[in-house]
Amino acid sequence: MTALLLASASPRRRELLERVGLPLEVRPADVDESTLAGETPDAYVRRIARAKAEAVPRAAGQWVLAADTTVTIDGAILAKADGPDEAARMLRALSGRVHQVMTAFVLLGDGVVREGVVTTDVEMIAIDDATLAAYVASNEWCGKAGAYALQGIAAALVRTVTGSVTNVIGLPLVEVLETLREAGGPAPRFAAGIPA
Asked: Whole-model pTM?
């Protein structure tokens, strides 16, 4: 029986956790990720992460980790784009400006509930029309909050990242591992010799 169930279909989250040696089983949660009227970005990611965690059945002794990431600028929620036109609109809104990437994560264990939210500031370069069209045509934006992937070719569109880089990729790894350790959850294999 795997000790940690990852309630996410995100290959980025899985890869981040596996890279540090955390044994896990992927069990994507199927939840409605629509925003609610008047919902703030913080409330949105918290609600979706909680819904994902609660949607995954687990046995005694198992832990569930769920997360949700969104991009926000001027209080607007930029979740996953529905198509190329919406992706282009989102990227135009981010062009030449600082925006926030916000990830909420929820950890459930036997009698344990831990939640956290991490926000990272990201500054985009001013994106010219030709670059925007080429990026949208790449389809890298598909399934990505804010219509870009820092770990991909969109790294060429990002001038600065202030805060957790892994948060922008989809999971604030340091904060998640700290929460797992504090809650008595499974530990990554590589961390055995690293002092807390």
From this structure: 0.91
